[in-house]
Amino acid sequence: MHILIISDNDSDLNWVNAPLTATGLSVNIIYAYTMKEATTLMGSVKFDLLLYDLAFSEKKMSDNFKELAGIGMKIPLIVLTEIMGDPAAKEAIQCGASYHIVKDRVKISAMAESFRSILQQQTPNYN
């Protein structure tokens, strides 16, 4: 499965590998630091899942989601939040995100289970 992580924070990009790898699924993780990079990658790779860090600072979230949707995105989009009940997560769901997950560096196995559950609902584009 191919997963695109959109974030401009290296520490967020690096730590999220652990729960994705802990899913036990075969995942290929690709990073995008800008929306231009993300849209370019989406034009050349068939992703099974997008992870979007709500701390991402390039443009407004709603504008970024519109840009992703303009590519014809029908890929599940998970937003990553810092805290439970983050109002931005509710806004993200209203703007088209499929799910939100709290970035919990301590509960890796709980995050892995959330990712596994979401990924297993999807039919991979290719392996």
Automatic annotation (TrEMBL):
Domain of life: Bacteria
One of the protein's GO biological processes: phosphorelay signal transduction system
Gene3D superfamilies hit by this protein: 3.40.50.2300
Limits of the Response regulatory domain: 3-104
Signal sequence segment: none
Name of protein: Response regulator
Source organism of this protein record: Panacibacter ginsenosidivorans
